[in-house]
Amino acid sequence: MTEQQAFYESTGKPKREALARIREELGDEPRQPDEFTKADVGDMLGISYKAAEYRLEKLIKEKKVTSRLLKSNLRLYKWVK
User: Fold this and answer.
1) Spatial strand order in the sheet of 35-36
2) What domain count does the chain have?
């Protein structure tokens, strides 16, 4: 192993470990096909995201929709079966 390769190996390993830890901390369960966001609802209905959020919160209170908050602060909604 050359001196340059040894240098990159020694400096790259902590970086890879740090990235793996970040991925583990921030990694969320992937979005499921039956989940949607307030942006999806707003775009589909042609209303603002705030109005979509209001309607979704109303459906949650009626127990027709559930939601979960990802670590990235993105809220995903899903119809109750």
Assistant:
1) 35-36, 75-79, 65-69
2) 2
3-class DSSP state for residue 2? coil
pTM to 2 decimals?
Answer: 0.65
Residue numbers of the domain that contains 23: 1-30
Q: 19-42 pLDDT, tens per residue?
A: 777 777 766 678 899 999 999 999
Q: How far apart are the C-alpha atoms of 63 and 75, rounded to whole Å?
A: 16
Residue 70, SS3 per DSSP: coil
Helix H, strand E, coil C: the string for 11-30 is HHHHHHHHHHHHHHHHCCCC
22 & 56 share domain = no
